[in-house]
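JOB MANIFEST
job_type = single_chain_structure
chain_count = 1
residues = 996
[input]
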Amino acid sequence: MEPTPEQSPHHAYPDHWEADVVLRDGGTARIRPITTDDAERLVSFYEQVSDESKYYRFFAPYPRLSDRDVHRFTHHDYVDRVGLAVTIGGEFIGTVRYDRINDQGRPASAPADEAEVAFLVQDAHQGRGVASALLEHIAAVARERGIRRFAAEVLPANNKMIKVFRDGGYTQRRSFEDGSVHLTLDLEPTEKSLAVQRGREQRAEARSVQRLLAPGSVAVIGTGRTSGGVGRTVLRNLLAAGYTGRAYAVNRAFDEGLTTLDGVPAHRSLGEIGEQVDLAVIAVPAHRVPEAVADCGEHGVQGLVVLSAGYAERGSEGRELQRELVRQARSYGMRIIGPNAFGIINTAESVRLNASLAPESPARGRIGLFTQSGAIGIALLSGLHRRGAGLSSFISAGNRADVSGNDFLQYSFEDPETDVALLYLESLGNPRKFTRLARRTAAVKPVVVVKGARHSGSTPPGHAVPVSRIPDATVSALMRQAGVIRVDTVTEMVDAGLLLAGQPLPAGPRVAILGNSESLGLLTYDACLAEGLRPRPPIDLTTAASPQDFRDALAGALADGTCDAVIVTAIPWVGENGEAETGDGQVLAAALNKAVADGAAKPVAVVHVEIGGLAEALAAASSTAAPRPRTATPAADRTRAATSSSTGPAPRTGPAIPAAPQTSPAPAPSAGPRAPAAPQESPAPTTPAAPEASPAPETAAGHGPGRIPAYPAAERAVRALAEAVKYAQWRRQAAVPGRIPEFLDDTIDEPGAAALIEAQLATAPDPRGRPLTHDEARELLGRYGIAVRPTLPAPDPEAAVAAAARLGYPVALKTTAPHLRHRADLGGVRLDVADEEALRRAYGELTDLLGKPAELLPVVQAMAPRGVDTVVRASIDAAAGAVLSFGLAGAPSELLGDTAHRLVPATDRDAAELIRSIRAAPVLFGWRGSAPVDTAALEELLLRLSRLVDDHPEVVSVALEPVVVAPHGLTVLGASVRLAPPPARSDLGPRRLPNY
C-alpha cells in the first residue's frame, strides 16, 4: 500500500514494517502502517468496538470518531507519529499508535526518545493475542526511529491491557496517578522479552498446524463427478480412513440436482454448505485456485491444503503466482500447506484424517513425518508401512510456500502423540530459526533429518528461499550441535526412526552381539567398530540354537551391566532332520519380546537373514503406539513424579536419558575360537563429562516395551544404534548447558572495540565494508585479549635486517602476497633464521626463487614456540548467523575438509567439543608420543573470538592463521578481519511469517 501525496514527503511509506503474523489461536493476520486511504476502514472498525472498550481507550464515553480524529489517526509522518493496524480480509481488527513526547509530555521530535502509546482491539478479536503482536511490532518501529521508552496511561479496570504490558517482558515502571495507572516501558529487548516473544511464537505456530491436522470439518474443492482425479481420490481416502468430522464435496460444475457424492453432501460452492468448514483441500487447476481461496476466506475456512501444481516449480511466473496465493490466503487469516502438496494425515483416534493422495492411511503410531517432496513422502509412507511402523501425523508440504519444517517442529514439540520427528527437507528457509527450534525439540524428543539438494548449489524448483553460502558440511555440523540426528538417506531415516520410537536410549556405546551365525556376528562387530561403538565379542549360539536359546541369551545380555545395547543376529536354524528351516518367525519374535519385557531397559535391534515372518511378527507384537506400562525403577518413578508435579503441562519427553556408564566394561563371555578381542579404550580426547541423569524409563517413548526393530543388514542396524548413542550423549550434555567464563569480562574492552569499528566503517562508504590492515586487525583483536604477533615489513634486505634487530633473533622471513600466503609448501617461508648472515642469505634465496620484493611483500616476524599449527575462523552467514570454525592448518583442513563448526555464541562446552570433534584431534593430545598442547589456551581463544563476533555483528569475518599451539600457551601469527554493516537479524525482531 503506497502513501498519498498528503503524507509527509520527507518519509516514504515504510513497507518493511508490513508483516504477516500468527495469532494465539493459530489464525493469521497482517500488520501494516496506517495511511490516509484508511479513513473509511478506521471508521468502520471503530463502529464495531464496544462502548466499554472505547471508554478504556479514551477515558470517557466516545461513541464515534470526529472528522478531526479520523484525520489525526490516519495522517502520520512515520517518525514522530506512527500508527499500525492489524487486518484480516482487508478490514481493521486492531490498531496501535505512538506519538513522540518530551519530558513534559508534549509532542516533540528527535532527540526526544520517549513516546506515548495507545491500543484498541475489536472486542470480537480480543483474547487472540492481537495487542501482544502489536506491542512487539510498534516497539521495533519505535527503536528504529530512536525511541527508547513507551509511556502509557491505563484505567485500573482495564486488566487486559495492563496484562499485555506486564507480560511483554520489557523492563517497566508503574505508578498510580490521577486515577489511572501510569506505565513506562524500556524498549531495549531483554532475555525475558525475547523468551516471551519466542514462547508466543511457538504456541501460535504449533496451534496453526494443529488446526490444519485436526479439523472438525473438511471440504474437498474440485471433487470430480466421475471416478479418478485428484479431488475424488482425496475424498475417498478421507472416507476410507474413517474421518470423524464432517466431509463435503465441492465443485462448481456439479449438477444442481446432485446432493451427495460418495455418501457425503455435494455442493457447488462453500456458501451452499451453510456450516463452518475448518479445512479446505483444493484440487482445481492453478488458474482457478484464487477463486477457490476467495470463497474459502469469505466463508471462514481456517486452513488450506493446496494440491494444485503449476506454481514456483514452473519458473519465475509460477513463483509470482505462488506469492500471490500466500498473500491472498493470509489476508483472510488462513495458513497453507502447499501448493503442489501431497496432503496431510492425522491418525489420532479422535480425528482419523487422511486428506492426502496416499491410498492407505498408516497405522496409528508415535512418529511424526514432514516431507517437502510428494515422491519421497510416498516412499517413506510405504517403507514405514512395510516395517509395521505407525505414524502420529504426516505433512507433505510440496513447495512449502507457507507451512514449513519449522512450523512442524513447533507442532511436534507440543504434540503429546509424537515421540520422534522425521523430516525430509530440500531447503532451509530460516536456518537460524531451524537450529533454535531443533535444539529445543531435540532436548525432549529425537529429531531426524534428511537434507536433499545438498550439493546442487541451487534451491530446488518451487522453493523460493534465501540462499546460504555455508557448505553442506557446516550445515551438518550445526545440526549436530542442535541435537539433530542428520542421516544421508530416507532409508537411514526410517531405520533410525524405528529404533528411537520403540527402544530406550542407550546409556553408552557398549554393545553386546549374540546370534546363531558366527559370520553375521563378525560383520556386526566390524560395523560397530566402524561406527565408533564399543562392541563386546560376539556370542555364537550356533546354528542349532532354538528360540528358547535366543531368549535366554538376550535375557543374560540385558542383565549384563557391561553392555548398553544388544544386537541380535539370526539366520534360519537347522532342524532335527538337518535341513535349514526358514522358520516360524513368530516363535522367535515371541521369545525375543518375552526377554525384552522381563529384562532391563536397553535398546535391542535384530539383524535377520531370510527368516520368514520375523520382521512382521516383531512389528505385530508391539507397534510404535504407546503400549502397556512396565514396572519402573524407583528412580524412574521419582523422575515422573517430579515431572508431573511441575507447574504447567510439559511436552512429551520422548526417549529417556539414561545415565552414562560409570565403570569400565568387564570381559564378555567367550565367543568361540574366531571371536576377536574386545577393543581397548583409546586415550583419544573426550568431551567434558556429562552430568549423571536419572535411570531410563522402559522405552524410548517412556512407555512399556516397544517394538523391536528388525533390519535386513548388520550395517543398517548398527548405524541406527550409533545415531541413538550420539543423540543420547547429546541429551545428557544438553541437560546442563555450557557457560561463558566470567574471566572474559575482565579482559575485554567492548566499548573500545565498538569505537574502533565505528571509526573504521566511517572511512568505508562501500556497503560491502572493508578489510582491516594488519595493524588495525591487531588493535581490534587486542581489545578482546587476542594478541597477534607483530610483523615488520621488509621491502629490501636492509629493512629485513633492521626489523630482525628490533624483534630479536631467531626470526621468520615470509611472503604475504595473496597467492603465497600460508603456502609454506611453495617456499615462501624461512624459519629459525638465527643471525644477520642467515637472514641476508634467506632473503636472496626467496627473491631469486619467487620474484621481486614488490611482488612478494616480505615481512619479518619473531619466532614462536614450536607446536601444532591450527586455524581459527569466524564468519557471518546471512541465513545461518555467526559460525565459529576450527581445524589444523594446511592439508587436514584445506585438502581433507577436516574442520569443525559451532554457532556463535559459543560456550565453554562448545569450545571444548569444537577442538575435539575434528578427525585429527589426537595430534593435539599427544599422538604417537608427542607432547600434548595447551588446549585450555586454545579453548579460551575460541571463546574470545566468539565473544567478539557476537558483541559486534559488524565483524563479518575473522581468520586467525596460523595459530601455533605449544605445550604451554599459543601464538597467533596471522590475522585478517573484515568489517561491514551487519546483516539484519530477523530472529531478534518481532514475530513475522516469512515471505519467500
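[summary]
Confidence is low (pLDDT under 50) at residues 1-9, 623-650, 661-701.
The chain has 29 helices and 39 strands.
exit_status = 0
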